[in-house]
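Dear colleagues,

As part of the handover before I leave the project, I'm documenting each prediction I ran so the next person doesn't have to rerun anything. This entry is a single chain, and its sequence is reproduced below.
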Amino acid sequence: MSIVVRMVDQDNNNSSSKTFFQASESVKNGIPLTIKLPPIKAEAGLLGECMRELYRRREFTDAQILCEEKSFSAHCAVLAAESEVFKDELMSAATGGGAREIRLSDISNPEAVGFMLDYMYGMDAGVWQDYNPRTQEINKDVLRLARRFRLPGLTDRAVHWLSKDLTTGNVVERLSICEDFGLDLLREKILEQLTFNRRALAEISHSPKIMQYPKLMQDLLQMAAAAAGEPETKGKRQRKA
């Protein structure tokens, strides 16, 4: 059965009709109704937050990172997702008690491993605002881990710490770290600051520490010589004028 509604054109003598609406027997479930609801809220990062919580509680871990006498529990899936190097090492790692084990024999400060894992799990920004290794050696181990496992973001965090609280008493050591780990941008920025601070440049150039780093000493002496010759050059220009 079908229902046809017709609209008759009264101005037309032949009483032609136009079909206005037709509901066929195929619509058996009634008239469709449209409901508009707010869009589904995206729950971005939900899985990541769950993994962070499991990491905090040390639950369902299946990997052990060994450093010195300390062991760190982690999840293979997170380590492999963050680092291809970790993934390859985990594939061939020995299992101890059901967990895959990786020993970091080249790292002497377990605290550096903790910093690396916090980074890989994407811990809260507050953790990194408080990033303050007790010694320069710990920060160097963080850089070693970042280089070994190809974690550029971890390198960036260590570099930012190196750029803080610079003095003439520690700048030589930090410049040497820049050379050892290829931190060219930070090295350039430090040398740039020394160029504009002749007093600091002179003090560092005559420091006994600089004797341990021949290449760095050569660069600083060249900078000191250039800085010393600059006033003389300016004086000659003024006399000519």
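The radius of gyration is 35 Å. Strands lie at 3-8, 17-23, 63-67, 70-74, 95-96, 99-103.

All the best with the project,
I.
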